[in-house]
Amino acid sequence: QAVVDFERLSEHAAAFQGHDVGFCCLGTTRAKAGADGFVRVDRDYVAQAAELARAGGCKHFVLQSSQGANAQSSFLYLRVKGEVENLVQAVGFDRCTILRPAVLLCKRQESRPMEWVTQQFLGAVARVCPTAYSVPVETVARAMVACVLQPGEEKVKVLENKAIHELGKA
């Protein structure tokens, strides 16, 4: 494990060398970081980490993005997620897997009241439609590992929420 300063990420290039696979789940919220901070973390840091990983020999990059990611979206969150997907694909990994989970179900240490209400509602909906609107973070983590262990011919593979559920229980 290496601790890096994302504001000076290029100074930590050695931490990205010698890895066959890279996993990226980096992200923040607009409420926590402001609009500029959100873009810096969710797009710029991720793209720079992908570039350093590729330069360090990474062959397969696995990116957690978001359901609805679209570089043309008028919503900042979805636009930035779509932009970073495009930037990571352009790095030129042998394989790139992008996971687009719906609302992540997890326990957080910080207080996010609206997210908590949403998770309670979606947790109930998940009992009826388990793959429609949410996914437990543990399922996403298992899917990320499973996609690396499976042979793949596709240079870029995008997994939507239902596919994440299926792969995460395999």
What does it look like?
The chain is an alpha/beta fold and 170 residues long. The chain has one domain: NAD(P)-binding Rossmann-like Domain (Rossmann fold), CATH 3.40.50. The chain is built from five helices and six strands; from the N terminus they run βαβαββαβαβα. The strands form two sheets. The chain has a four-stranded parallel β-sheet with strand order 1-2-3-6, with helices on both faces. Strands 4-5 form a two-stranded parallel sheet. Strand 4, helix 3 and strand 5 form a beta-alpha-beta unit. The radius of gyration is 16 Å and the shape is globular. The model has no long low-confidence stretch (mean pLDDT 91). It comes from Tyrannus savana (Fork-tailed flycatcher).
Q: What is the secondary structure topology, with strand pairs?
A:
Elements: E1 21-24, H1 30-55, E2 60-64, H2 76-90, E3 95-100, E4 103-105, H3 113-128, E5 134-136, H4 137-149, E6 156-160, H5 161-168
Parallel strand pairs: 1-2, 2-3, 3-6, 4-5
Helix pairs in contact: 1-2, 4-5
Counting structural domains, the number is: 1
Poorly predicted ranges (pLDDT <50, ≥5 residues)?
none
CATH-assigned fold name = Rossmann fold
- Please count the helical segments: 5
What is the percentage of strand-forming residues?
Answer: 15-25%
In the CATH hierarchy, what is the class? Answer: Alpha Beta
CATH superfamily: NAD(P)-binding Rossmann-like Domain
- Classify the secondary structure makeup into a structural class: alpha/beta
What oligomeric state is this?
A: single chain
Assign a percent range to the helix content. 40-55%
Q: What would the principal axes of the Cα set say about the shape?
A: globular
SSE succession: EHEHEEHEHEH
Task: Report the mean per-residue pLDDT as an integer.
Answer: 91
Radius of gyration: 16 Å
Number of strands: 6
Q: Give the termini distance in whole angstroms.
A: 27 Å
Architecture, CATH level 2?
A: 3-Layer(aba) Sandwich
Biggest sheet, spatial arrangement of strands: 1-2-3-6
Biggest sheet overview: 4 strands, parallel
